[in-house]
C-alpha cells in the first residue's frame, strides 16, 4: 500500500469562497516567513512574506497572519479562483537557513 | 529577464551514469541553491553557494557535487547516479545582502529518473 506520508493535506474550496491554509513552524528564533505557491510541474513561486515583528501583512487577494505565541502561520486567499489550485507551502528563515514545510494542496471546485 | 533557468527539464539515467544539471540566474543574485523535492517531503537543501567562489553542504549532500562557475551559474553533478536520486531538482537564487529577510526565487525544476 501507499505510505501516508506521500499524501499532502488537501483543502477543497468552492470557487469564490475564501481559503485559509495553515502552517505550524518549529523554530521560535525564525524571523522571516514566506509563502510559496507551486503549480503542477512548475517551480515554487513567491506569494507573500512577513517578518517576525509583524502579525499581519496583506497583498493582492492574499493575507498572511503570524502568531508567534503558538508558532503558527496562515495564508488567506480571498475569492478563490480556479487558477489558485496548487500546492502552498510555508518557509521559515533564521539567518539564511530556510526550512520548508511539506505543503497543502488547494483544490478549487468550480 | 528570465529569472532562474534550469536545463534539462527531464532526464532518465541508468544506475552508475553521470550527469550535470545546469542552473543560471540573471538577477545578479549573490547566493544560489540546489534542492531536491520528493513526494510527501519539504524541499531539502543539497548544496548552496553564499557567494561566487564559495560552496557549502546542505542537508543531503551525499552523492552530489557542485560548481559555482561564476556569479550567474551554479551546476549540480551526479557522478554515479543511484535510484535513490530519482527526484525533482530545483535551483534557486537569492540576493543575500547579509540579513535574514532573504527571499529565494526558484527555477522550473529538472525531473530526474534513475533506473
Give the secondary structure arrangement, pairings included.
The complex is a heterodimer of chains A (110) and B (115).
Chain A lengths: L9 E5 L4 E6 L7 E7 L6 E7 L4 E3 L3 E6 L4 E6 L8 E9 L2 E4 L3 E6 L1
Chain B lengths: L3 E4 L2 E4 L5 E7 L5 E7 L6 E6 L6 E2 L6 E5 L5 E5 L8 E8 L10 E2 L3 E5 L1
Parallel strand pairs in B: 2-11
Antiparallel strand pairs in B: 1-3, 3-8, 4-5, 4-9, 5-6, 7-8, 9-10, 9-11
Structural features, described:
The complex is a heterodimer of chains A (110) and B (115). Chain A is mainly beta and 110 residues long. Chain A is 0% helix and 54% strand. Chain A has strands spanning 10-14, 19-24, 32-38, 45-51, 56-58, 62-67, 72-77, 86-94, 97-100, 104-109. In chain A, a hairpin with a 3-residue loop joins strand 5 and strand 6. Chain A starts with 9 loop residues before the first strand and ends with a strand. With 115 residues, chain B is mostly beta strands. In chain B, strands 2, 4, 5, 6, 9, 10 and 11 form a seven-stranded mixed beta sheet that branches. A four-stranded antiparallel beta sheet of chain B has the order 1-3-8-7, with no helix packed on it. In chain B, strand 7 (64-68) and strand 8 form a beta hairpin. The radius of gyration of chain B is 13 Å and the shape is globular. At the A-B interface, strand 3, strand 4, strand 8 and strand 9 of A face strand 10 of B.
Task: Tag the structure with descriptive keywords.
heterodimer; A: 110 residues; mainly beta; four-stranded antiparallel β-sheet; 10 strands; disordered N terminus; B: mainly beta; seven-stranded mixed β-sheet; 11 strands; globular
Q: Give the integer mean of the pLDDT values of chain A.
A: 90
Q: Biggest interface: chains and residue counts?
A: A-B, 29 and 21 residues
Radius of gyration of chain A: 14 Å
Report the count of strand segments of chain A: 10
Overall shape of chain A: it is globular
- pLDDT < 50 stretches of chain B: none
Task: Indicate the structural class of chain B.
Answer: mainly beta
Amino acid at each position: 500500500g501507499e505510505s501516508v506520508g506521500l499524501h499532502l493535506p488537501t483543502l477543497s474550496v468552492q470557487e469564490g469562497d475564501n481559503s485559509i491554509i495553515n502552517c505550524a513552524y518549529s523554530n521560535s528564533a525564525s524571523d522571516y516567513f514566506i509563502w510559496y505557491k507551486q503549480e503542477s510541474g512548475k517551480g515554487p513561486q513567491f506569494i507573500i512574506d512577513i517578518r517576525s515583528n509583524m502579525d499581519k501583512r496583506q497583498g493582492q487577494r492574499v493575507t498572511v497572519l503570524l502568531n508567534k505565541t503558538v508558532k503558527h502561520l496562515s495564508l488567506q486567499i480571498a475569492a478563490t479562483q480556479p487558477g489558485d489550485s496548487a500546492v502552498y507551502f510555508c518557509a521559515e528563515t533564521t539567518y539564511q537557513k530556510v526550512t520548508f514545510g511539506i505543503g497543502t494542496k488547494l483544490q478549487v471546485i468550480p | 529577464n528570465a529569472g532562474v533557468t534550469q536545463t534539462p527539464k527531464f532526464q532518465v539515467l541508468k544506475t552508475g551514469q553521470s550527469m550535470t544539471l545546469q542552473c543560471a540566474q540573471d538577477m545578479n543574485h549573490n547566493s544560489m541553491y540546489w534542492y531536491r523535492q520528493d513526494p510527501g517531503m519539504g524541499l531539502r537543501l543539497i548544496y548552496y553557494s553564499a557567494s561566487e567562489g564559495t560552496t557549502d553542504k546542505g542537508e543531503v549532500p551525499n552523492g552530489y557535487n557542485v560548481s559555482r562557475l561564476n556569479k550567474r551559474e551554479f551546476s549540480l553533478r551526479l557522478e554515479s547516479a543511484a535510484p535513490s536520486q530519482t527526484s525533482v531538482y530545483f535551483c534557486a537564487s537569492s540576493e543575500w545582502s547579509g540579513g535574514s529577510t532573504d527571499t529565494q526565487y526558484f527555477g522550473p525544476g529538472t525531473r530526474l529518473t534513475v533506473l
